[in-house]
Amino acid sequence: MAASECAPFVKVGGLADVVGTLPPYLKENGHEVKVFLPKYRKIDEKAFGVKKLSFKLHIPVGDKYEAAQLKTAVSPNGTKCYFIENDKYFGRPEVYGTIHGDYPDNRERFIFFSRAVLEAAKAVGFQPDIIHCHDWQTGLIPAYLKTLYSIDGFYCNCATVFTIHNIAYQGLFKADTIPLAGFSWKDFTWDRLEYYGKVNLLKIALTYADMLSTVSPTYAKEILHEEFARGMEKTLRHRAGDLMGILNGIDYNEWNPATDKLIASNFSKNDLSGKKACKKDLQKWCGLPDDESALIIGAVSRLDPQKGFVLVKKVIPKFIANNVQFVFLGKGDKNIQTVLEGFARKYPSKVSVHFEFNNSLAHKIYAGSDAFLMASLFEPCGLGQMIALSYGTVPVVNRTGGLFDTVKYFNPKTFEGNGFSFHPPNEENLLSSLKALLKTYKNPEQWKKIIHNAACANFSWDKSARMYGELYRRAVQKKKGN
Q1: CA-to-CA distance for 423 and 446, rounded, in angstroms?
Q2: CATH (one of 3.50.90.10, 3.30.43.10, 3.40.50.2000, 3.20.20.70) for 272-458
Q3: What is the H or E stretch that residue 238 is in?
Q4: pLDDT of 482
Q5: Where are the alpha helices (DSSP H) in 82-184?
C-alpha cells in the first residue's frame, strides 16, 4: 500500500484510518502487506520505534535528484511500514498545508514520493503482486508502472489498484508537471496524462490503474454522475466495469464501548445503562448543565463546507429553544469556526465547541451523546456515523454515499431502523429530521429500541477485506491478460 496518511503514525482524515486498519484483516485472508508512507516531521519516531535503514536513494524530480532516506517501524497492529524521509519535502509542521492553504510545492512532494515508493520497494526487496494506491498523492504510481517502469523486470507482473477516498481532491497542476514527473510529452493526450490542458493526478490514476475502488457502494454509483464526479464522470463511466464500491469498516479494538478506557462507564449492546454516566461525564467535561433529560447532539468532524455546516448554521437557532445541548469537536474552516463560536457565546448552556483534534474527547462525545449530527452535503463513506452507532448514539445524516449505506430511518410503528436521514440536503429537511429525533427521544419505548438497533449495527473490516481480496484477484487477472 502507498498512501500519504496512516493511523496511528499520521492522520488528517479517514484515509489514515483505512490504511492503518485494513492491513491486518487482509493478512487474515492470506495477503502480505507493507505500507509505504512519507516520513513527516510530526511522526513521533521515538513513540513508534522508527528505525533508520541503510538504504539511501536518489529520486529524480525534473532535472534534479533528491535524497530519500528509508526508515521502518511496525504499527501497533503488526503491519510493517516503510517511511520515505526527505526534510525538504516532509520536514514541515503539517501534512498538506497550513491554515493559509496547500503547500505550493505539493506536486513536487508527491511526485518525489511516488517515484520513491517504487525505488524503495526494490531496495528492501519486497516485490509486490499489487500496489494499492490511495488518493491523488499516489496517483502517478499506476502511470509510472505502465510508462517509465514498463520494462523494469522487478515490476513486470505487478498490477495496481487505486482507491478514491474523496473525489473532490484531485491534484490539478500545470502542464509542466509532465517533465517534472519524468513523463514524455507524447503521453500528454486526452486519453492518458492530459486534462483540459493541465495534469490531474486523480484522472491519471483512474486512467492507468488496473482496478478502481471507492469507499461505499452508493458513492461508487454517485460518482458516475456529473453532480458528484467533479469532472471525472466521463473517465469513470469508461472504467465503470473496473470500479468497485467497498464500504469502509471501523476498528472495534478502538471503538468498542465495552472496552473503551477513555469513557466514564463501559457498556454494551446488551446493557446500555452505562451511557447515562457517559452523558453526565460529557456534560461536566464540556461545562454544560447536568441535565439527564436534555437531548445531547454531538458532532466530531472536520470543519469543512462539505460537512453541511451551512445547514447546521441555519437550523440551530430554530431548534435551540428545545431542551437540547450541542457539542462540536473539530478544526478547519475559519468561517465555520467563527459561526460555532458565536453560538457558544449566545447559548453557553446549550452549545460547547472545541476546535482541536482531541481523541479522548472524541470518545466521550461518541459515548455520551444521545445523537450524532452528520449533515454532509456528500460523503464518500463516513466513519463518524458508524462509530456513533457502535456506542448506541443515534445518527442524523443526509442520505448520500456511505451515510445512505449505513443509516436506516427509524420507523416508530415497526421499530425498525437505527437513525434519521434527510434528502435533499436543505434547512427544512434537516430541521424535520431533528424534530423526528426529538419526538422519538421523548418516547421511552421507541428510544430504547432505536439505541439498541444502533448498538447492534456491525461494520467490521472482515467483509470489506474479503471484497478487497476479490478486487486484487481481478487486478492480477487483468494484468496477466495484458
Answers
A1: 23
A2: 3.40.50.2000
A3: helix 233-238
A4: 65
A5: 87-90, 106-124, 140-146, 177-181
Topology, domain 14-249+462-481? Rossmann fold (3.40.50)
pLDDT tens digits, one per residue of 376-410? 999 999 999 999 999 999 999 999 999 999 999 99
CB 429 within 8 A of CB 422: yes
**Phi, psi for residue 38 in degrees, rounded to 5:** -70, 150
Categorise residue 248: left if φ over 0, alpha if ψ from -120 to 50, beta otherwise.
Answer: beta
Grid coordinates representing 405? 449505506
Beta-bridged to residue 295, according to DSSP, are: 324
- For residues 158 and 122, the answer to whether their CB atoms sit within 8 Å is no
DSSP per residue, 57-107:
EEEEETTEEEEEEEEEEE-TTS-EEEEEE-HHHH-SSSSSEETTEE-TTHH
**Are 14-249+462-481 and 272-458 equal in CATH topology?**
yes
Cell numbers given for 311 = 445547514
What CA–CA distance (Å, rounded) separates 100 from 372?
30
Neighbour-count burial for 196-209, b at 16+ CB within 10 Å, e otherwise: eeebbbbbbbbbbb
C-alpha 73: how far from chain center:
22
Q: Is the dihedral of CA 433, 436, 442, 446 positive or negative?
A: negative
What's the distance, CA 352 to chain centroid?
Answer: 25
pLDDT digits (tens, 9 = 90+) for 38-71: 999 999 999 999 999 999 999 999 999 999 999 9
Quick one: which H or E segment has residue 359? helix 359-368
In angstroms, the CA 238 to CA 17 distance is: 30
Whole-model pTM: value is 0.93
Instruction: Using alpha carbons, select from 126, 147, 124 the residue that is nearest to residue 32.
Output: 126
